[in-house]
Every structure is written in C-alpha cells, then in structure tokens.
User: Fold this.
Amino acid sequence: MSSITAAMVKELRERTGAGMMDCKQALTENAGNMDAAIDWLRKKGLSKAAKKAGRVAAQGLIGVITEGKGGALVEVNSETDFVARNPQFQQMVAAITKLAPKAGGDLAKLLAARVGANGQSVEDHVKEAIATIGENMSVRRTASVKVADGVVADYVHNKAADGIGKMGVLVALESKGDKGKLMELGRQLAMHVAAADPKSITADELDKALIEKERAVYAEQAKASGKPAEIIAKMVEGRLKKEFFQQVVLMQQIYVLDGKSTVEAAVKAAEKDAGAPVRIAAFVRYALGEGIEKKEEDFAAEVAKAVEGAR
Assistant:
C-alpha cells in the first residue's frame, strides 16, 4: 500500500472540504488513489457536509460554563438564526460546551474530544449535524480562564437556554475573600464587560498597535491647531489617557452599574464586603459572529442570473 503523505491529505481536504482525519482515512482505504478517496467520502455522506463548507456561518450560539475555579466559552456557528433556535442545535452546543473546560482554550483539543453516546469526536458530531439539519456549521473558537484562589463568574446575554446565548462573558477574580461576595461582584463585572466591551484590563496590557493607530489619528487632528510639535505631542498623550484609555481599558471605564465610579474604584469598594483584596485576573467576551465577514446577498442579481441561466 502506498504511503499517505501530509500533502495528499491536504490536497484531498482542499478538494472536498472534509475533515482531516476523514481525508486520511479515505486515502488509506483507497491505497492513496485521490479520485477513489473522493468517491469514498461521497459514499460515506461526508461530501454533503463538504458542499456546505463554503457558505458563511455567522449565526449560532455562544456556550458558557464555569466549573470550580475555572470556566470556558465556545462559539458554535450556523448559517441562520432559525437553526440557532433549533433544540437539536442547542443541545449540540450545550454538549460541546461541557467539554470545553478540559480543552483549556485549545480548539484542536476540543474538536478531538469525544461527545455523545457513540463517542464520536466533536468534529464528526458537527459534520453529522450538518448532514441532518442541512446547513453549514462550525465550532469557531474557544477560550478558558482559571484562578488559583478566587472565583470565575459568567454572564450570558440574549439567553436561548441555560448557559447559551448570543454573547458570553467570563470574569476571573483572584482573592482570598468571601466567595459569595466575590461571585456577586464577578457577575456584575461580567455584565459591565458585556456592555462596555473593554480591550484590556489595564493600559499596560493594551495592544500597542491599537494605541499607535489612535495616536496617529489624534496627532493628525492636533496638527490643525498650528501649535509646536512638542505641544502637539503632549496634547496627543493627554487625549490618549483622558479619552481613549477611558473608553477601552476596563479599570478606567465608568462602571455601567452606577454610571459614576470607575471600575477600579468599584472593585476597591467591593473589597470591604469581600474582606480581602480583589484583583481582576482575566476576562473573555465572546459576541456572536464578531470578526466574521458576512457576504452581502444581492437578491435581484441572483434572480436575474437564475432567469438568464434558464433561457
């Protein structure tokens, strides 16, 4: 039997859209014959899922789970909101979410994890659902947080069922304080993160490219003042601190629950109830479909094309 190379698996995957392990098995079963492997995938019904792989899946659900001192998020996409409301799809998302903590934020590990009564991989389970439900789906991303001592709180926005919705947030608090008080604070902070969409906990952790982009905008605007370069530089840095950082840095944002304190001040005040210092160790915010380039459909052009083809 001929040796199955990674290049062969890659080619078959690109030609069919089937999963990597399925492609490897198809080539193995057919002694490396590419055409025979494609037919094998079709006979197994895997090509049905592959045909849908190019379609944009920007709907779906976010799954959120907390376990002890850790928690995880998963985004599972579908093409339509109609499918996202399907109980079968929701059950699938819930089952995948339960496996997410052990994956530790590693998508490959999550896709390889075993799910369901027959113990198939998450990747195969999703493919089976694609064939059954009839539209493209994917497990797009996963993340996890944990603390050595403290709590991990969650918040689900636009909830579809327990632990699943259109947006999910996890907030990890490091503290030796009262766990009940910490969880209450954590859930309030998670709601704040959902509403305010911070980019980092502190200014030092903010993406440097993001800062430079904003600095360039402020510098261009300041040039119109006609002031000397050294004054413009000070103006720019002042605006970064007073405007930009207050918009995107969690600790400097105005706390949405009271509308006047900064998050930093709110956490400091909460330490009295908790009975110990509190540190926001991490947060993760998943909003459904963010970053996915959605294809704009031109329905009139589509109809015209169909009519032209029928002539």
Observations:
- The first helix runs from residue 6 to 16.
